[in-house]
Amino acid sequence: MVYSTRVLDAPTSRGTTWPVHEVGRNADIFDPEGARLLKAGSSLVSNSTHLHSNGGDTRAHLEVGFRFHPKDYEPKYREAPFFLGSGSDIDIKAGEKDQELHAYTVLQRPTKIVTFEPHLHAPGDRMCLEAIWGFNVETLSCVGYDHNWVRGYTFEDDYQPLLPSGTILHIIGYMNNTEQNRNIPDARNWQGAGNRSVANMFIDLGMRLSMSEEQFQEEMALRRERLNLTVNDHVIGCPLCLVIPQPSR
Fold it and tell me: Which residues form the domain of 141?
């Protein structure tokens, strides 16, 4: 279910988007400095609810809970507004496993990655996330996938990828359209893109935060201090963390 919250009697007021809710979904953990605003008097609104037809009228029930920051809290960072995935260039052959899908995006601003959330459909088997900076290519996360139990993966504090503008994010989806995959109704059929579970999507729905260059430098300095980093260390997902400024003479 794709949903947002907004005040219904204030149609010109911008709503707040929230992470997609899916089957088996674990709780969303936001960055402490990147929370979202739930306005007083808001209602939960969905413009895309994917339900399976079962031949009869069925009432669905979903409870959504929020945990709040203290009253005077102000977020430091905002959600990074970019899409990573493909909703159209999908062609899954019949009877084959380990078929690959690829998608890329170039970061326009420094970015912190908070969570990685693969979103595939029935033939989805696993997904990996890479960061490409110059000639450096690093795997940030690589996880299995089961469309009956969709999960989001939260990076630990001080290990969230901190990526400079110009970084290329690359996701690779691996598809299994064979009888070995219990989610496939008929592996003899090819599959294309679509909203149904027996069609396909290929998206990273993870949470990312956008920051200024000054904030990016501050975040890297804090990470060097907390992890006691030196020029001989290596931190996956932070290609500039080890570019340590020399003290002024």
Answer: 78-210
Task: Output DSSP code: residue 57.
Answer: -
In the numeric block, which tokens belong to residue 1?
Answer: 């279910």
In a domain, 181, yes or no: yes
Q: What is the CATH number of the domain that holds 198?
A: 2.60.120.230
Q: Which residue has tokens 């003899």?
A: 188
207 CB-near residues (< 8 Å, 6+ apart): 19, 28, 30, 31, 34, 79, 113, 114, 115, 117
| 70 domain residue, yes or no | no
- CA pair distance 140, 124, nearest whole angstrom: 19
The residue length of the chain stands at: 249
CB 195 within 8 A of CB 50: yes
Listed as ranges, residues in the chain with pLDDT below 70 are 245-249
> Per the domain annotation, does 46 fall within a domain?
no
Considering the domain boundaries, does residue 128 fall inside one? yes
Task: Give the pLDDT confidence score for residue 246 in this predicted structure.
Answer: 64
Cα separation, 101 vs 146, in Å, equals 17
Distance CA 15, CA 39 (A): 9
